[in-house]
């Protein structure tokens, strides 16, 4: 996957799409498919099948790519220590661009940090601050989102608006071009700074019956100039779509 969020993804994004399937019930299992548009030159959008595994306990939770331990939890506020998988990566074998084929791989990583969520009549505010735990980028991200849920019987619609900050190390790892890569590929060398990527998202969830649920989520991200100016990139935006069916025990 060439960018993120499920962040999404959720997140990126980070944590976004998986969090919507979490309920007050203890265990939810299912299957999903994620489509991610590639921001890289010569890259193609890709589909990824992924299992849905959600568990919501009094002290900890698992939401597919995300797990956490609650430091504080009540009906309005939840503060937790969080570990999340970041599927952002770049594989030179996946691009049709000959110059990008000469670049190094950028690997997926595991990130850890803090998540805060506040729920009120006027909507939901969620923020995640997390850093790279595996030393791939040595960077960090900060995701901030506002959501409002509309309920129409068995169907709920949750639009959201937010922004994802990626630190200079995070951006430079995934979009920078080192001097040695520049000599091999013919691309200009590039060092990226930190940046904000604003996004819009929408999640539709339908309760088929008391146990079965279907969910469709989409996110449109506007890429910052720090990303767009990279010689690796030829898009100014990115679309990520997630769809799944789950069973709640």
From TrEMBL:
Pfam families membership: MipA
Name the record gives this protein:
MltA-interacting protein
Q: What subcellular locations does the record give?
A: Cell outer membrane
Q: Does the keyword Ubl conjugation apply?
A: no
Gene Ontology process terms (BP): peptidoglycan biosynthetic process
A GO CC term?
cell outer membrane
The primary location reported for this protein is: membrane
Which InterPro entries does this one have?
MipA
User: Origin organism of this chain?
Assistant: Erwinia billingiae (strain Eb661)
> Which keywords does the record carry?
Cell outer membrane, Membrane, Signal
Superkingdom of the source species:
Bacteria
Family of this protein = Belongs to the MipA/OmpV family.
Signal sequence: where? 1-24
Originating gene: mipA
